[in-house]
Amino acid sequence: MNPTTHRLVRLTRRPAGLPTPDDFTLAQAPFPRPERGQVLVRNTHFLVFPGLRTLIGGETRDVPLPPLHPGDALFGPAIGEVVDGPLEKGRLVLHLQGWRDYAAPAVAECRLLDGALPAPVAHLAQGAAAYGALTRLAEVRQGDTVFVTGAAGAVGTMAGQIARLLGAARVVGSTGSPDKARRLERELGYDATVLRAAASFEERLARVAPDGIDVVLDTVGGEQLTAAVHTANRGARIALVGALDGQLSPERAGGSAPAVLDTYRLLTRGITIAGYSGADHPDVEAEWEVRFGAWLRAGAIRFPYTPVRGMERAPEALPELIAGRSFGAAIVEL
């Protein structure tokens, strides 16, 4: 029998401060019936990404995704199997209608997965931004010291490995817990880590990077970016790929992340700083996928992620991510 309903996650209310599981509801919705030009997909995995904090917080100026209002279903990158429609049944596709059992995206909004990566879930890795930033904006050179903020996150766990593969001699990162610091060093090749809550973050950073920093890949902002500028060498390149300091703050709604920058130091040391947007570098995605696939098959890189098993746990997934209870990407497995 054809089902009449399926499950999805809705925003119940706009959070007061950081989101909690009570701000989301696992709801039953009418089973999607694809219209002309649409395809019916049974989702198998979807990504929990911190940008949702901004979308549910209502501060979405300059964000290429629509805001989420109470009652709306969440969305985001997902992998699913074609069930019906113009595409071949059984094929896996990547699309943006996650947070639900079934989806009916337009064919044009689906990307057929062709085996370029050895495991389909790897298509949810957040490595393209790190790769683009480290090859286009803050190009890593042989022998560089690279500093990655938020190193245990979805982007950071990939960024450190990518920097090493691109020729970095020393890779250091910041994270929030000793356990994550140990994993970064033992599993992902980081040379040293600095705990973000440590007293005198800047002094600790200078100790683990005694010869200064040549490249910064910043996913956080705030005082960590301030410290990175103070520790940067002449000619250092800083790429901004995230703003977690604002997205994870209970005092903010995810649409701002102020930081104090020593512009005198930027000037006198010839330091460059720029924000990375994938839309500005449309060639990066395909290039990254080729290199990522080759590195995965050679065992040169890992894709660490924390599984969230079952739609029943999905309403807890974003609060758990924001609370720092994941390592690498957070992915709901259906």
From TrEMBL:
Residues 19-332 form the Enoyl reductase (ER) domain. It holds the Pfam family ADH_zinc_N. The keyword Oxidoreductase applies. Coiled coil: none annotated. InterPro entries: ADH-like_C, ADH_N_2, ER, GroES-like_sf, MDR_fam, NAD(P)-bd_dom_sf. Keywords: Oxidoreductase. CDD domains: PGDH. This is NADP-dependent oxidoreductase. It comes from Actinacidiphila polyblastidii.
